[in-house]
Design brief:
By secondary structure, the chain is an alpha+beta fold. The chain contains 11 helices and 11 strands.
Length: 456
């Protein structure tokens, strides 16, 4: 009897929560929206900082950044859904307030024709019905918003699983001294990739068709291991209760229409851009004057893209030029300086140095001060060439420099204005390195910056 009483108490408690859930929804929505707006802005800045501070050529790091980018997208989507939910709840509260004043429509006072009144009575929803519909829409939308977030995160986890599997298998082959890009190892890698892709697509089809492969007895037995595997990998096991409750309550046709509506809203944002500036160029061009090239014009929260001058307008005898150091150029810089081996690795470096000698075990902080700084500077500066108005600076002195804006690493050099002409001038920075394939010298245009010099 005690168990039955306890169960009855739980049911009554749940019913009370259902009646008062709108209060919790309003509080959670409003509070979460403010938190998400602040978090989205900070998280977006964090991702931008990562992109400028580091090179993500490493596959595992790239997967982590990709997953974080999906988290950023999910935060934006959740914010949009909660704003819509908050607006609908406001509409719902307004409808309840109106019902307390005017519970039903008095059609006689409208003084409309019988023809129009008959159609109004058929088409216009009463306040009682409207309140119920709005309440149901708000509750479903609140749950659906979190379900969609889990869908985005699940997609990211699937891609991480695919990438980690391929990298791990290729790493195992490399570990035993077998090249993974040829012969049987390559075929095995392709086979594993295809298996994960095909099973992932099957899981995706089943999810969005609301259980296509679960309907047939034979097919469902074959599909069940795939379902269990990806339920764990994508963590969809967490959102499974919401998913099955929604598809069991509403008709599948209606749910597919909701999926289609969301897709029609979201996909155009990703793949279509509204732009009426037909005669304005897109991308880098020598005819585009970018504020990013100048310290006094660039916004404080913006990174230096390539190089930066003090100002667009130059006066005096000297002007400083900052050249950003891009980590992805490490392999090219190394070809310019093959005799120098940096103490630091390209990536993870130990903070401590462990040594075992006759006196015992010694643990000291890793010391990179032993590195030849002059040789380092020479390797980096020889990689770049600076010219003004096609006059190349051959004996220009460079210094290691962390830019005051965002503390970006690079080099600073001071140019003499003696050879500048009055009016418009152009500073050009190129990168020169030896090709990995045919040993020819390649010159890439790193930046072209116009500026105006005044002799007075």
């Amino acid at each position: 009897m005690s168990e039955e009483k306890t169960q009855d108490q739980i049911i009554q408690w749940l019913k009370k929560l259902e009646r008062e859930s709108w209060q919790l929804e309003l509080l959670v929505s409003a509070f979460t929206i403010f938190l998400l707006i602040a978090a989205t802005e900070n998280f977006g800045d964090f991702l931008t900082d990562l992109n400028f501070q580091y090179s993500f050529s490493d596959n595992l790091v790239s997967l982590a950044v990709f997953f974080m980018a999906l988290l950023y997208t999910s935060m934006q989507v959740l914010t949009a859904f909660l704003v819509i939910h908050l607006l609908l709840r406001g509409f719902w509260i307004g409808a309840i307030g109106l019902r307390s004043v005017q519970p039903s429509i008095d059609y006689n006072k409208l003084n409309y024709s019988e023809f129009f009144l008959e159609r109004l009575k058929k088409k216009v929803i009463g306040l009682d019905r409207l309140v119920v519909i709005l309440d149901e829409m708000c509750s479903v939308l609140f749950s659906l918003s979190f379900l969609i977030i889990f869908m985005i995160i699940s997609f990211g986890l699937y891609n991480v699983f695919l990438g980690v599997t391929i990298i791990s298998v290729a790493g195992l082959f490399s570990l035993v001294g077998v090249e993974p890009d040829s012969g049987i190892p390559f075929l095995l890698l392709i086979s594993i990739t295809l298996i994960i892709l095909v099973t992932g697509i099957l899981y995706l089809i089943d999810y969005f068709t609301l259980g296509f492969f679960k309907k047939s007895k034979r097919v469902s037995r074959i599909y069940y291991p795939i379902y269990r595997l990806y339920s764990v990998i994508t963590l969809s096991i967490i959102s499974r209760s919401i998913y099955y409750n929604l598809i069991s309550k509403y008709s599948k046709k209606r749910i597919r229409l909701i999926y289609l509506a969301i897709a029609l809203i979201v996909l155009p944002v990703w793949f279509v851009n509204f732009d009426q500036y037909q005669y304005f160029p897109v991308g880098d061009t020598t005819f585009l004057l970018e504020t990013n090239f100048y310290d006094d014009l660039r916004p404080e929260n913006e990174h230096v893209q390539s190089v930066s001058l003090e100002s667009k307008y130059v006066k005096g005898d000297f002007v400083s030029l900052f050249i950003r150091y891009l980590p992805e150029d490490n392999r090219h810089i190394k070809t310019n300086c093959p005799d120098f081996e940096p103490l630091k690795n390209d990536g993870i470096n130990p903070r401590l140095r462990i040594k075992v000698n006759n006196t015992g075990l010694r643990i000291n902080p890793e010391n990179f001060e032993e590195e030849d700084k002059e040789m380092l500077l020479s390797c980096l500066s020889e990689f770049y060439a600076v010219s003004v108005n096609d006059s190349i600076y051959t004996d220009q002195k460079f210094y290691f420099y962390e830019h005051s804006q965002k503390e970006q690493k690079g080099m600073l050099t001071v140019l003499s204005t003696k050879g500048f002409k009055h009016g418009e001038n152009t500073v050009k920075v190129t990168k020169s390195y030896v090709s990995d394939t045919d040993s020819t010298v390649i010159q890439d245009n790193f930046a072209v910056v116009p500026f105006w010099y005044s002799r007075h």
